[in-house]
Amino acid sequence: MIDRPQPVSRSRMIPAADLPFAGSPLAAPVPEDDPAADRLVAAAIERLARDWQAPPDLDALAAEAGMSPGHFQRVFKRRAGISPKRFAQFVTLGHARRLLREGAAGGLLGASLDLGLSGPSRLHDLFVVAEAATPGEYKAGGAGVAIRYGFHDGPLGRVLLAATGRGLCFLGFVPEGEEARGLAELRQDWPGASLTEDPAATAPAAAAIFGPVHDGGLDGGRPDGGGRAGGPLTLHLRGTNFQIKVWQALLEIPFGRVATYADVARSIGHPTSARAVGNAVGANRVSFLIPCHRVIRGTGVLDNYRWGPVTKRALLAWEGATTATGR
User: Fold this and answer.
1) N-term to C-term CA, the chain
2) How many C-beta neighbours within 10 Å does residue 123 have?
3) Cα 211 from Cα 203, distance rounded (Å)
4) Which of 87, 145, 311, 314 could form a disulfide with 49 if both were Cys (CB 3.0 to 4.6 A apart)?
5) Cα 262 to Cα 239, 269, 277, distances in angstroms
6) Distances (CA, A) of 61 to 8, 57, 87, 316
7) What angle do CA 100, 106, 112 make, to 5 degrees?
C-alpha cells in the first residue's frame, strides 16, 4: 500500500483585490462571459468557504470584486450556476452532517456495487470512465507515456490538467503562483513519463468540466471536450489494485452526496479497512472527477483533503446548492 501523501498547503484562489480590474470604481464592468470572471467568482467562493461561520453578504463580495451588487450577482450565477446567497446556505457543517444522515438512511453505498472499470459513472452532466494503467506502466512509473498538461482558471479555482493519449491522468487545484508545486506533484505521480506543456490540448476538457453554466451545471458543451456533446471523459489512472478499487467506488457516490471512509470500506468488501481506504482516497490524483471530496469523517468534519479543507468545503457546498436548485 502506498503511503498517503503528505498534506500540501491549502489551496487558495487569487484574491479579487490582486486583479487589475478589481476594487476600482472607474474600472469597466467585467463581461459575464469574460474568462477573467472565473477568477473573481473563485475568489468569492473561496471567501465564502473560508469564512462560512460569518459569511460576507452580496454587497461585500461585490465590493471586493469591483462590481455593483447586481452585476456581480449575474456574473456569479453565470459562472457557478447558483447565487452567492444560495452557496452560503450550503457551506455549513450542518449541511455536511445532514448529508451523512441522508446517506445512512438511503443506503448510499451498497456492498453489491459493480466495481468494473468498463461502466461509466455519472458526474452531474458529465460521464466519467476510469481506465487503469497496465501493470507495466504502473511499475515503471509511466515510463514511455507522453503527458500533455496545462493550467486553467475556473469558477472553483485554478487547476492543473494533464492527459495521456488514453485520458486525463491528473487534475489538481493549484493556487495562483504555485504552478511549480503543482507540476512537481504531477512529476511525482508520473515520474517516468515525458511531460509537455500544451494548454491547448487540455483546454477542451477544462471547458467541459469547468466551462460556463448551461442548464444548471458546469459544462462548456464543447463537442471535443468530453462533456455531454462529446461522450464520456476517460481517466487514465495509475495506482495499485486496491487504490483503483477505492477510486472506482468513489465514482459511485452521487453528485451532491457524501459517504464516510467506513462506508467506502464496506462497499468494496473490506469493512475493517477504513484506514487503508483513507490512504487510497488521499492518493487520488484526479480531483473533482474522482470525487474524493465526497468522503468525510463520520462527525461531518471536513479535513484530510489533498487540496485543502477550504477547497473541499467549497466543492461540497457548490454540489449541494446546485443539486437543490435543480430539484
Assistant:
1) 41
2) 21
3) 10
4) 314
5) 21, 11, 8
6) 27, 6, 13, 20
7) 110
pLDDT digits (tens, 9 = 90+) for 147-167: 999 999 888 889 999 999 999
> Which three cell numbers, joined as nine digits, stand for 303?
479535513
**CA distance linking residue 36 with residue 44, whole number of Å:** 13
Coil, strand, or helix at residue 241?
A: helix
Given 292, 295, 296, 321, which residue is catalytic? 292
Q: Centre a 10 Å sphere on the Cβ of residue 230 and count the other Cβ atoms it contains.
A: 15
The predicted-structure confidence for 279-317, as pLDDT tens digits, reads as follows 999 999 999 999 999 998 776 666 678 888 888 888 888
pTM for this prediction: 0.67
Beta carbons within 8 Å of 305's beta carbon, 6+ residues apart: 292, 293, 311, 312
Q: Is 292 a catalytic residue?
A: yes
Q: Is 141 or 221 the better-scoring residue by pLDDT?
A: 141
- 157 Ramachandran zone, left/alpha/beta (phi>0; psi -120 to 50): left
Residue 248 near residue 289 (C-beta atoms within 8 A): no
pLDDT band at 48 (very low <50, low <70, confident <90, very high): confident
Domain-by-domain residue ranges, the chain? Answer: 1-26+241-326, 28-80, 134-211+232-238
Domains 1-26+241-326 and 134-211+232-238 share a fold: no
pLDDT at 327: 43
- Other CB atoms within a 10 A radius of the CB of residue 193 amount to 22
| Least confident residue range of 45-49, 98-102, 120-124 | 120-124
For domain 1-26+241-326, say whether CATH 1.10.10.10 is its number. Answer: yes
- The half-sphere exposure of 109 on its side-chain side, counting CA atoms within 13 A, is 27
As assigned by CATH, the class of the 134-211+232-238 domain is alpha beta
